[in-house]
């Protein structure tokens, strides 16, 4: 495990954490999209998969700029968040309830990514890497937009998940 002697070392560690998070998502999002019964949710997850590929490429370019490699680190936070999503997918649930659970899992992921990109952008600012900060903030805004999209999808899906026993709550 490399030492963290400088702010630059910490910045590279944060970028590696983000890269690991994004590559883990590249594996998980297809499973999540395939499990979604709501077409809007499925399309949103598939669109985010495409966006995740672009974000990973963006991070690759930052590593090239720094002349270092992205590998050698596993984002444990993302591993845990995706383990929760996998657990949800193994459970027996009505389609709308599963979709509501997928949204919950996906929003936790988005919130983690929003925080991680914001932190890395602030470090890039401090290190006087404005090009890096700009690219990281672009990814942060994309994650915020994905979160808002999930929130919009949640309203009808959550209502559908109420089921007939709780129809009066609609």
TrEMBL record:
<dbReference type="InterPro" id="IPR047114">
    <property type="entry name" value="YciF"/>
</dbReference>
<dbReference type="InterPro" id="IPR010287">
    <property type="entry name" value="DUF892_YciF-like"/>
</dbReference>
<dbReference type="InterPro" id="IPR012347">
    <property type="entry name" value="Ferritin-like"/>
</dbReference>
<dbReference type="InterPro" id="IPR009078">
    <property type="entry name" value="Ferritin-like_SF"/>
</dbReference>
<dbReference type="Pfam" id="PF05974">
    <property type="entry name" value="DUF892"/>
</dbReference>
<protein>
    <submittedName>
        <fullName>Ferritin-like domain-containing protein</fullName>
    </submittedName>
</protein>
């Amino acid at each position: 495990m490399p030492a963290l002697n400088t702010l630059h070392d910490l910045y590279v560690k944060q970028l590696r954490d983000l890269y690991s998070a994004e590559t883990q998502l590249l594996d998980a999002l297809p499973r999540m999209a395939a499990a979604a019964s709501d077409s809007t949710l499925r399309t949103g997850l598939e669109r985010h998969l495409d966006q995740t590929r672009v974000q990973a490429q963006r991070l690759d370019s930052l590593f090239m700029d720094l002349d270092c490699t992205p590998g050698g680190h596993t984002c444990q936070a993302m591993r845990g968040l995706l383990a929760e999503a996998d657990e949800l997918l193994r459970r027996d649930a009505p389609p709308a309830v599963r979709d509501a659970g997928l949204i919950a899992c996906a929003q936790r992921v988005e919130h983690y990514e929003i925080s991680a990109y914001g932190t890395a952008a602030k470090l890039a600012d401090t290190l006087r890497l404005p090009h890096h900060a700009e690219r990281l903030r672009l990814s942060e805004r994309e994650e915020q937009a994905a979160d808002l999209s999930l929130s919009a999808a949640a309203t009808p899906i959550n209502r559908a998940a109420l089921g007939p026993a709780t129809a009066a709550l609609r």
